[in-house]
TrEMBL record:
Zn(2+) binds at C34, C218, H243, E247. It comes from Methylacidimicrobium cyclopophantes. The lineage of its organism: Bacteria, Pseudomonadati, Verrucomicrobiota, Methylacidimicrobium. It catalyses: tRNA(Cys) + L-cysteine + ATP = L-cysteinyl-tRNA(Cys) + AMP + diphosphate. NCBIfam families: cysS. One of its GO terms (cellular component) is cytosol. Belongs to the class-I aminoacyl-tRNA synthetase family. The gene is CARS/cysS. This is Cysteine--tRNA ligase. Binds 1 zinc ion per subunit.
Length: 486
């Protein structure tokens, strides 16, 4: 697949500016995204963030990078412990159910599964080692309650990501009753001493039985899988403070390194202009949306394209209906050109190249997907007109492959049904035997048919080899090319 050649520019929360993205060891990109806390079914607001990460990952690939994507599961914290207790289930058994539901929703939304999905409770040893290191270096201390706290006074850069005013976080500013155990009100827990309400949940540590704090989970797992310094860390904007600020403090103090080069944050979702809340009954899950007759593709299209990731997205049912209509238009367009003989497509038509250049330019501009999709619909309209007029079309199969590598809508319906051999009795017919060939093979076939029609046998032979490399064989028959799985 062709790659976008434009430099990719991303808004880095740390610098508050759009920067050209340059990974530490290009083309590799090490990417960490904070995963869900698995105590209940995730809602569409959560999935907007995971779709943003999916967009980022797909765009990185389109721009020639090779992302390695790690996302954690927070399977121990106050909420998971309390909810498991309420359900009378052991913590692991309880969180397993929600991990399974979450992964099912990822699949419905066609989100690429992260390369690694570490669970916090499988990495307690790493967290203990990191905390010991922080104590040794003077950045953490054991509080009066047996918990271990991070000493924010020991890290002058604290607050840089969130652009905090540190004055309110100075030592001695003891306010709340429950803060007396700490040296300073801003100090946060790295290790929480076991309490009766934790029930059977707890691990042995040098400071007694307890469990890790939420922030240390992400520092330990991200650095374990991606190294002490890596390229991108992302999550919802609500994680900037304190979660990501605390991750930076812990990681930088332990290693003396910068931890993360680029921080990306996705804004939140409103429903009908209001904050999602249980009392308003507007906290929708993927299952709620499917129950109304929509598919994962419709919801994906809406959450992915309705606004720029740094802007609030207002979810409405009318908006979802419009997203469905947009997806239907794309499906109609796909079905229409798939019925055409391969001779209708010209490999390097200028209108196809101009469209792809504009599509890349929009995405390069801090992932401006709404703009990229707008350009795609202009292109769709133009090619529909060209189909009406019977004129030569740009290479739609390969162009769609590139567009869909970002949209992730996938192909619809069996190709055999869309392109029945009997409809093309001429020499350019494609006879498909057995399973549907991938788009890449269809594109090669179309190009080979075009080469044969202009009697370019050398090109035809090299395309036959390219098709064979994809695991298919092509044979020329009086009815046209016949394709079989090798
Ligand atoms: Zn995290």
């Amino acid at each position: 697949m062709t790659h976008c050649q434009t430099p990719l520019r991303l808004f880095n929360t740390l610098s508050r500016s759009v920067e050209e993205f340059r990974p530490m060891a290009s083309p590799k990109v090490r990417l960490y995204a904070c995963g869900p806390t698995v105590y209940g079914r995730a809602h569409i607001g959560n999935f907007r963030t995971f779709l943003f990460v999916d967009l980022l990952r797909r765009v990185l690939v389109l721009f020639g990078f090779e992302p390695e994507h790690v996302m954690n599961y927070t399977d121990v914290d106050d909420k998971t412990i309390a909810a498991a207790k309420a359900a009378s289930l052991p913590l692991r058994e309880f969180t397993n159910q929600y991990i399974a539901l979450f992964e099912e929703d990822l699949k419905t939304l066609r989100i690429l599964p992260p390369d690694r999905r570490p669970r916090a409770t499988d990495h307690i040893e790493l967290m203990i080692a990191l905390i010991e290191d922080l104590i040794r270096k003077g950045h953490a201390y054991v509080g009066e309650d047996g918990s271990v706290y991070f000493r924010i006074a020991s890290f002058p850069d604290y607050g840089k990501l969130a652009h905090l005013d540190r004055r309110g976080l100075q030592p001695g500013a003891r306010i709340a009753q429950d803060e007396y155990v700490k040296e300073s009100v801003g100090d946060f827990a790295l290790w929480k001493a076991w309490k009766a309400e934790d029930g059977g949940v707890g691990w042995a540590s040098p400071w007694g039985k307890g469990r890790p704090g939420w922030h240390i989970e992400c520092s330990a797992m991200s650095m374990h899988y991606l190294g002490q310094e890596f390229d991108i860390h992302c999550g919802g904007a609500d994680l900037i403070f304190p979660h990501h600020e605390n991750e930076i403090a812990q990681s930088c103090c332990a290693t003396g390194k910068a931890f993360v080069r680029t921080w990306l944050h996705c804004s939140h979702v409103l429903v009908d202009g209001e904050k999602m809340s249980k009392s308003l009954g507007n906290v929708y899950s993927v299952a709620d949306v499917l129950a109304k007759g929509y598919t994962g593709r419709h919801l994906r299209f809406l959450l992915l394209t309705a606004s720029h990731y740094r802007q609030t997205l207002n979810f409405t049912w009318e908006g979802l209906a419009a997203a469905k209509a947009a997806v239907d238009r794309i499906d109609d367009w796909l079905a229409r050109w798939r019925r055409l003989p391969p001779t209708r497509f010209a490999a390097s038509a200028p209108e196809g190249e101009a469209f792809l250049a504009s599509f890349c330019a929009s995405l390069a501009d801090d992932l401006n997907i709404s703009d990229a999709v707008g350009r795609f619909f202009d292109f769709l309209r133009a090619t529909n007109r060209a189909m009406d007029l019977g004129t030569l079309l740009p290479d739609l199969p390969s162009i769609w492959e590139i567009v869909d590598s970002v949209l992730g809508l996938g192909t619809v319906g069996p190709i055999e049904a869309l392109r029945p051999p009997s409809a093309h009795p001429n020499a350019e017919a494609v006879i498909l035997a057995g399973e549907t060939p991938p788009l890449r093979v269809q594109e090669l076939l179309a190009r080979r048919a075009a080469a044969r029609s202009r009697r370019d046998w050398k090109e035809s032979d090299s395309l036959r080899k390219a098709i064979e490399e994809q695991g298919w064989t092509v044979r020329d028959t009086p009815e046209g090319q016949e394709l079989r799985r090798r």
